[in-house]
Amino acid sequence: MAKRQSLLPTDALPTPQQRLTLFETARRLFRWDGYDEIGIDHFARPGDGLARALSEGRLRRNFQGYTDDGATALVGLGASSISRFPQGYAQNASATSAYIRDVREGRFATARGHSFSQEDLWRGRIIEQLMCEFRCDAQEITALGARPEWVSGVLSGLAATFDGVVRLTDTGLDIPPRSRPLTRVIARGVDAYDLSKAGHSPAF
Fold first, then answer.
1. Neighbours of 80 (CB within 10 A)
2. Mean pLDDT of 109-120
3. If you write DSSP's letter for every residue of the chain in order, what string do you get?
4. What is the CB neighbour count within 10 angstroms for residue 97?
5. Are 74 and 87 in contact (CB under 8 A)?
6. Of 1, 38, 91, 188, which has the fewest Cβ atoms less than 10 A away?
7. CA angle 83, 88, 90 (to 5 degrees)
8. Does pLDDT of 153 surpass 50?
9. Which pLDDT belongs to residue 4?
10. For residue 88, what are the β-bridge partners?
């Protein structure tokens, strides 16, 4: 995404399998040292706010990772930072010079944004459930206003795409422990938007 990244020799980077092995080694060390696993890539001492939020069903995920903060708005400060509001996302100008100019001239530095549709909110909550709890509670999504048949269709489609990796349950969908290293990829399957041209590194 940035020109300076071309300085990194691609063949020196770990392969997906090596990355998984490195993570598994770190995971075992954290667990050995008494840490609780939080979602897909966080660890916390028992009694920490994140550990309590997980056990109480209050764990959330935002741009910074997992959090026990239930705030509905996250304000991003600085060039290219992203804010999340109940209505949608807003991203500041990517160039530092443009961001500083807008701020100095008393203008919002927002360069682009996305307004949430109702379906965006439903899909977002499914993704958050998968990332935080490794499951989706269909009843919670219908309580947000989604039709049961819509929820069933999304989860059935996910189960078909990841056959043998996830499982449908009486309450929704579950990611079994052996499949949890693939959670980010599975959750991406719920996203209605094409991320293939976003330029980010692969999830796995």
1. 15
2. 96
3. --GGGGGS-GGGSPPHHHHHHHHHHHHHHHHHTTPEEETTTEEE-TTSHHHHHHHTT--EEETTEEES---S-B---STT-EEEETTEEEEE-SSHHHHHHHHHTT---EEEEEEPPHHHHHHHHHHHHHHHHSEEEHHHHHHTT--HHHHHHHHHHHHHHTBTTBEE-SSEEE--GGGGGGHHHHHHTT--S--TTS-PPP--
4. 9
5. no
6. 1
7. 40
8. yes
9. 84
10. 85, 115
As a whole number of angstroms, the distance between CA 64 and CA 47 comes to 21
Across 164-184, average pLDDT: 95
Angle between helices 148-161 and 118-133 (to 10 degrees): 50
Q: What pLDDT is recorded for position 10?
A: 87
Q: Provide the residue type at 193 as one letter.
A: Y
Q: What is the mean pLDDT of residues 60-79?
A: 91
State pTM to two decimals. 0.86
Compute the distance between CA of residue 157 and CA of residue 59 in angstroms, rounded to an integer. 26
